[in-house]
UniProtKB/TrEMBL annotation:
Origin species: Corynebacterium pseudokroppenstedtii
Stated name of the protein: inositol-phosphate phosphatase
EC numbers: 3.1.3.25
Binding site for Mg(2+): 71, 103, 106, 234
Record-level Gene Ontology MF annotations: inositol monophosphate 1-phosphatase activity; metal ion binding
């Protein structure tokens, strides 16, 4: 177990590094892809992704000693602390008991066209659980942070727990509807979910950024969100934020979220319950996601 005082100290380090990176992030908005990850061009990275991840990795390892898992370069650096052991995560692969997880440009496709729904995600994972979460949305001037147990901070100020839901104005974030990259969750099933949830909450929103969706849910902009990414770097920071704000996060079956889970449901307790009911109303043409 990491002591709360240590989490606060690690959070301070991560906050400084993220804020120091925001100028580079903003100056290069609109950067074009420099690394194509697959043949259909649906997954790519920019030089900013690569540069920021290297910067974060070097400094986080230097200042904390923990290894870093990043979207672009995988798991590298650092060492396990005395008593640390590897834990099963991310589909059964061995990961350190404690590690940083970073996505230097979440919403890269938005970033390349100067869509402001993109950000920087940093989290600390301990025994498979996010215990620190930071989401910076520099082009919106929003900075969300939390340690396990809360409270949520927005732009450095404590933020009140999620408010009661007003059904007249509720907005729900929704993950990719058409992207072929989410092939583990069939496209038709995603579209069926969209229509099912829309029966209860017609104001659905697609930002193109898992980090933004979860930060907005933590901050009460969205009452809830449904995403389909299996990637730890997409989900971990926002999960910590939502939980710190008093929200609930599970997989699509309503079971506790764990690393490697494909998809998650997040929101205030009442919204989360309704979202699960709408999800369960849709026949699933494949095996459970967890």
């Amino acid at each position: 177990m990491i002591e709360h005082s240590d989490l606060v100290a690690y959070l301070s380090i991560a906050e400084r590094l993220v804020k120091d990176s925001e100028d580079l992030f903003c100056v290069n908005i609109g950067a074009q892809p420099s690394v194509i990850k697959n043949e259909d061009l649906q997954d790519f990275a920019t030089d900013v992704d690569l540069s920021l991840e290297q910067q974060f990795r070097e400094q986080l390892v230097k200042e904390t000693g923990f290894p870093v898992l990043g979207e672009e370069f995988g798991l590298k650096g650092g060492s396990t602390a005395s008593g640390d052991v590897s834990v099963n995560s991310m589909g059964g692969g061995k990961q350190p008991e404690t590690m940083w997880c970073i996505d230097p440009v979440d919403g890269t496709s938005n970033y390349t066209v100067a869509n402001p729904m993109c950000g920087i995600l940093v989290s600390l994972i301990h025994k498979g659980e996010p215990v620190i979460g930071l989401t910076s949305l520099p082009l919106l001037g929003q900075f969300y942070s939390a340690v396990r147990g809360g409270p949520l901070h927005v732009n450095g100020e404590p933020f009140p727990p999620l408010p009661k839901d007003d059904p007249e104005v509720i907005q729900i974030g929704f993950g990719s509807i058409l992207s072929g990259r989410r092939g583990h969750v069939p496209r038709q099933y995603r579209q069926n979910l969209l229509f099912s949830i829309g029966e209860s909450y017609p104001r659905m929103r697609v930002t193109g950024s898992v980090g933004a969706d979860l930060a907005f849910t933590a901050g009460g902009v969205f009452a809830g969100t449904l995403t389909f990414s299996p990637n730890l770097w997409d989900n971990a920071a926002g999960i910590c934020l939502v939980q710190a704000a008093g929200g609930v996060v599970t997989n699509l079956d309503g079971e506790p979220w764990t690393p490697g889970t494909i998809g998650l449901v997040a929101g205030s307790p009442s919204i989360h319950s309704t979202l699960l009911a709408r999800i369960h109303a849709v026949p699933r043409p494949f095996e459970p996601l967890s």
